[in-house]
Amino acid sequence: MQGTELLLEIGCEELPAGFIDPALAFLQAELPRLCKEQRIACSGVVVDGTPRRLALMVDALAERQEDLEEEITGPQWSVAFDAHGQPTPAGAGFLNKNKIDASAVYQKDSKKGPVVAGKRKELGRPTSEVLPHLLESLLPSIPFPKTMRWGDRHMTNGQVFGRPVQWLLALFQGQPLSIRFADVVSGTTTRGHRYHAPGEVKVNSIAAYKRALVQGQVMLSRQERAELIVARVNELATAESGRLVADPALVDLVKNLVEKPFPLLGRFDSKFLVVPKELLISEAREHQKYFMVGGVDGSLLPCFVVVAGADSRDKVALAAGNARVLRARFEDGAFYFRTDRERTLASRVADLDKLVFHKELGHYGEKARRTVELADRIAQLVSSSLQRRGLDVQHTSAQATRAALLAKADLTSGVVNEFPELQGVMGRTYALHDEESVDVAWAIEDQYAPRHAGAALPRSDIGAIVGLADRLDTLVGILGIGKAPTGSADPFALRRAAVAVVGLAVEFGYSFSLEALAHSAVDAFQRQGKLATADKAKLVAEAKGFIAGRLRSVLIDRCAAKGFVDVADLVDAACSKDAAAGLSLDDLPDVEKRVQALAALRAAGPADFTGVAATFKRVSNIVKKARDEGNVVGVVVPAAEELEHPSERGLRDAVAELVAGNSHDETLRQVVQLKLAVDRFFDDVMVMADDARLRSARLALLGAIVARLSGVADFTRLQG
Q1: Do 589 and 510 form a contact (C-beta atoms < 8 A)?
Q2: Measuring CA to CA, which residue among 450, 360, 373 is closest to residue 404?
Q3: Mutual orientation of helices 588-604 and 664-672 as an angle, nearest 10°?
């Protein structure tokens, strides 16, 4: 595409780190949309920025709008023109509004009869004439979590921005574009680093702009800033025989705090290393945005890295100043930690009765007691899975119920009150200090695992059971008071909880009835006098359906992790809720095995799978339609004498020889072998024969095949 480049830079006071990425993402998407709306072809849109600037660069914009020619229809012809062919007021209004001459209109047939139609043509304008208005409409629409108004209210025309705008740079074809935002008029200059190169620099192209920033000590690329931070922090850590404590989220944040990173090593008193490392990391991260340095054994070293936004002449003094600030934070953390350990975690359980879980569902003490009940119930329901792994069911249940009782006790501690993200971690730490069993201690932390998609799973079945119990209690309780998620709003993170329930069940191989667990959860609430007026059956069905509703996305993600893509129809087939399919969703690990079997079969021969799917979809559809029409369709293979054609007797013998497969893969292989016989059957006979006995036998033959399929999938949902 022939075209020329566009450069827009919005210079402002320092934007908060969290404002930058969303604003740039908006510009990346919105400019092409506006250009398309204005019939201006564009390509090569790139955005980037720092706390002081948002930059939009386009490699190629068409020099002119595309010409517009469109057909416009109006009122009925009889309404627009009188008997003499003269425009009526309605017709004249249509012509004037669309700037069409009366001689250029014609009749066009429509559902309401002949209507007035005409071609409207509009020549494209030069892009340089369109851009100023386009950009002036773009700037005030950039979204920010919070905005500021600055200067004279009347002078700024009531416009607001994330932070006060200080300069604008706008170039098209290397020439200045005149745009105005608030009290700032665009120019042709950019500015360097606030401290190292604060002067203005004139530019006339994107290449010149990038050179000016490099010379001005500004790294425009967010990715390059992040990479430099990681590389330099690792260099400093390596020099101390340590390594960076990995924290991608902190890197992502800090990269947007500076225009150019200047990492600097600082040190703190090693006496603080007796404090749990998670607490020290949180203090340094949350309050100061410092990176911590770890040893090769996983412990912390008494040093940190601060990423400064300017190069200091006295680095020793700067490091010492940051260390003093960090010391104060560590003193606070150490104080809370010492104070918390003056009491046992078990003694804090009583304090949970003073901590509200939800005003309609009571306090955390009641939740703890419900979770204990559920943990024991789950342990019994998954006993076969535990036994297969050589675990003692009663011991596991005892450990899980102890962990469930203590699970939320750390919410009453000083450290967790100050750092909520450490709940579970501090519970584990305090439990170990109190000489609770190691399994119980780790289960207290692991109740929250996985904390997000792709995060680590619980280390043991005890942690998995407590996590399931806690999430099921929350799900049933919140759904029971009518607070189900709506749209994108999910204040209680119920969707994430349901995904975790499904993921834990599948990962740990837990086969249990969702309905039975939901019943137990509702019973636990009602024994405490909660949810007493709820329709129990309806609530159980809602909870079961809500959790099952997350099954689809979990299975698709897990298939993708194993290299199977485009499996949505396979998941739908394995998870079909059609009663006729006879599929159960209670055994979640088995549902995954069904999907994996289908995916493996398709991967082995996509073309063959398409034919197999089509054949058995036809079988399933015929059976379903027959039942819908009131026919009784048996599932027992009919006797040979009930059939008359060789092809149907051959199919009958093949179906009768099927044996129960040890796996879904084996079952599918057996069923697939029937394809040729089924195809011959459809070629040679009419299923819905006039003879009622023959029709019933043929339907029973197909019903027996569907019954065999029902253990794996609903083939009517396969796309081939």
Answers
A1: yes
A2: 373
A3: 40
Helix axes 17-37, 127-138, angle to 10 degrees: 140
User: Which two tokens mark 268?
Assistant: 């703190």
What does DSSP say about strands 262-267 and 291-294: parallel, antiparallel, or unpaired?
unpaired
In CATH terms, the fold of domain 605-717 is: Isoleucyl-tRNA Synthetase; Domain 1 (1.10.730)
pLDDT of residue 412: 97
Q: Kindly report the backbone phi and psi dihedral angles of residue 683, in degrees, each rounded to the nearest multiple of 5, phi listed first.
A: -70, -35
Reply yes or no on domain 346-549 having CATH 2.60.120: no
Which helix (H) or strand (E) covers residue 115, if one does? strand 115-122
**Residue in this structure with the two tokens 């579970």, named with its chain if needed:** 424
User: What pLDDT does residue 2 have?
Assistant: 41
d(CA 211, CA 220) in angstroms, rounded, equals 11
Q: Which segments of the chain have a pLDDT < 70?
A: 1-3, 152-158, 577-584, 659-662, 720
Strand 356-358, strand 362-363: pairing: antiparallel
Residues 6+ apart with CB under 8 A from 604: none
Q: Please, are residues 389 and 445 in contact by the beta-carbon 8 Å criterion?
A: no
Q: How many CA atoms lie within 13 A of 159 on its CB side?
A: 20
What are the residues whose beta carbons fall under 8 Å from the beta carbon of 96, sequence distance 6 or more? none
The model's pTM: 0.79
Compute φ and ψ for 488, nearest 5 degrees.
-90, -5
| Close Cβ partners of 430 (under 8 Å, ≥ 6 residues apart) | 340, 341, 344, 345, 409, 410, 413
List, in order, residues 6 or more apart from 365 with CB less than 8 Å away: 349, 350, 352, 353, 355
Per-residue b or e along 155-187, where b marks 16 or more CB atoms closer than 10 Å to that residue's CB: ebeebebbbbbebbbbbbeeeebebebbebebe
Helix 425-433, helix 438-446: angle, nearest 10: 170
Asked whether 668 and 677 are in contact (CB, 8 A), the reply is no
Q: Where are the domains of the chain?
A: 4-64+126-215, 69-122, 223-340, 346-549, 605-717
